[in-house]
Amino acid sequence: MMRVGCMAVLILFNYVLQSTILVRVSILGVNPDTALIFIISYGILRGDVEGAIFGFFSGLIHDLFGGHVIGLYAMLGMLTGYLAGKPFKDYFKDNFFLPFGIVIVASIFYQVLFFVLNFLLGGGWNFWFYFRTIILPTTIYTVSVAIPLYSLMFVINSKIENFEDDRRNLFKE
Amino acid sequence: MTFIHRYKRIFLLIGMGICIVAMIITFNPDFRPTVIARSLGYVVVPLQSGATAATNWVTSRVSLLWEMSYLQQENARLRDEIGWLQIENQRLQLAGEEYLRLTELLYIRRRYSELPIVGATIIGHNPSAWNNRFTIDRGSNDGFARNMAVLGDGGLVGVIHQVTPNSSTITSLIDDSFAVAVQSVRTEDTGVVMGDSTLMQAGLVRMEYISTTAQIMINDEIVTSTFSLFPPGISVGTVVEVRPTPDGLAQYAIIRPSANVRRLEHVLVVNQLFSPEDQDAEDLY
Questions:
Q1: A to B CB pairs, distance under 8 Å
Q2: Would you call A130 an interface residue with chain B, using a CB distance cutoff of 8 Å?
Q3: In B, residues 151-170, which contact A (CB 8 Å cutoff)?
Q4: Shortest distance, CA B236 to any CA of chain A (angstroms)
Q5: Alpha carbon of residue B254 to chain centroid
Q6: Which of A120, B12, B137, B184 is the most buried (most CB within 10 A)?
C-alpha cells in the first residue's frame, strides 16, 4: 500500500513538474522526458510486471491531460516498463551507469513506436525529419538527466523496501 | 501476485488490447472519459497553477536583474510614445464616432467587437515535443466548452479540446490535429489552415486547398472565414510563401501566425460556440 501511494505521488508530481517547469528549460524545442526515466528506473529496480504497471499509469495521466487519444502513452509506457524490467535478475542494481545505456535504447524505442502509432492515428510520415528534430535531441537531453533521477528512484525504492522488510519481520514474530 | 507473474505475457497482451481499443474509441473526441480527468484535475490543476506561478516569479526576478538598464531606456521611450498616442487617440476617437454613425446608416453590425471574451492564464504545457497543447486555469465553471476559439497576442491561438470544471486543454494552431477554414482579406480566396508537425518547431502553419486561380501573395493577411467553427474575421496570420502542390491541382501557402503561440502566458477565450449554419451572410456585410 505504502509503495502504491508513494508511486502515485511520484507520478503526479512528475507530471506537474514536466508540464510547468521543464517546458521552460527546453532546448531546440524539446524537453527531457523525465517520466520515461522513472518508468525505466522502476522497471530495472522492480522487474517487468511492476515496471509495466508503473509505465501504464505514468502514461495514462499524460493521455488524460494532454493527449489526442487515450491509451497511446499508456501503452508505450507499459511496453517500455516491461522491456526495461525484462533482464531483472541479471542486473547489479547499484550500478548507475547501466540505466544510462538502457535509457538511450528505450528512449529511441519509445519515440519510434510513438511515431508509428501517431502515423496510424493520422500524423506525419517524414521519419528522418522527426528523427533529426525530435527523437535524437529528446534522447540526448533525456540521457543527460538520467543518472540523478535513477539515483533518486534508487533511494526511494530502497527506503520502501526497507520499510516493507521491517513490516514483514514484525508479522513473522 | 504470483498469478500475474506466471501469466505476465497474457496480461501484457490484454493491457495492449485495452489500450488499442481505448485509442480507437477516444479517437472521436466526444467519447473522452472526462470524468477521470475531471476528478484528477482537482489535484493536478492547483499544483500546476502553483508551480507555474512560482516559475514565473523566479523567471521575472532573474530577468529583472538583467533588464534593469534596458527598462529605464524603454520607460523614457514609452513616455514619449504615450504623449504621441494620446494625440493620435483623440483623432481616432473622432474618426471612430464618424465610423459608427456611417455604419449605423449602412446597417452594418460588426460581431467581432461584441464577442463575449473571458481571459485565462496558461498553467501547463504538454511536455511532449510531438504536440503543442497547453492547459488553462478556467473550465466549464466559466461556461467553456469544446470547440470554443482561443485568442491572444493579436490573433487566433487555438481551440478548446477538453474541459474539466476548473481547467481546459487547448490544441494550439501549430499542432498537427488543428484545422480551421480561412480566407485572405485582400482577395477573399478561401483555404484551410492546418497545423503541420514539420513546421511546428518553426512556429508556422500550412494553408491547404487554395485554388490554382487564387491570386494569393506573400504578406497577405489571412483571417477565419464564415465557413469556420470560429467567429469570422479573426486574424490567423500572414502569408510567408506560396507554392503549387506536387500534383499541380492546387496551391498551398506557409502562414506565420499573428500570435506567437510559444511565448504566451495569458489567452482570451471566446465564450460562445459558433457554427457555420447560424451565420447568415447578410449579417456580416
A1: 133
A2: yes
A3: 169
A4: 22
A5: 17
A6: B184
Q: How many residues does chain A have?
A: 173
Q: What is the pTM of this model?
A: 0.74
Q: Quote the CA–CA distance of B184 and B193 in Å, as a whole number.
A: 11
Q: Which three cell numbers stand for residue A154?
A: 534508487
Rounded to 5 degrees, what are φ and ψ at B146?
Answer: -60, 145
**CB-closest option in A12, A66, A122 to B133:** A66
CB B126 within 8 A of CB B102: no
Which of A58, A70, A133, A138 to probe by mutation at the B interface, max B CB count within 10 Å? A70
Alpha helices in chain B (DSSP H): 2-6, 8-26, 34-105, 281-284
Interhelix angle A146-172/A136-144, rounded to 10 degrees, is 60
φ/ψ of B153, rounded to 5, equals: 55, 35
A46 touches B at CB < 8 Å: no
pLDDT in tens, A111-166: 888 888 878 877 677 888 888 888 888 888 888 888 888 888 888 888 888 887 76
Predicted local confidence at residue B14, as pLDDT? 87
Give the strand pairing for B190-194 and B205-210.
antiparallel
Report the number of secondary-structure helices (H) and strands (E) in chain B.
4, 12
CB A55 within 8 A of CB A82: yes
Mutate to test the interface with B, among A12, A23, A27, A113 (most CBs of B within 10 A): A23
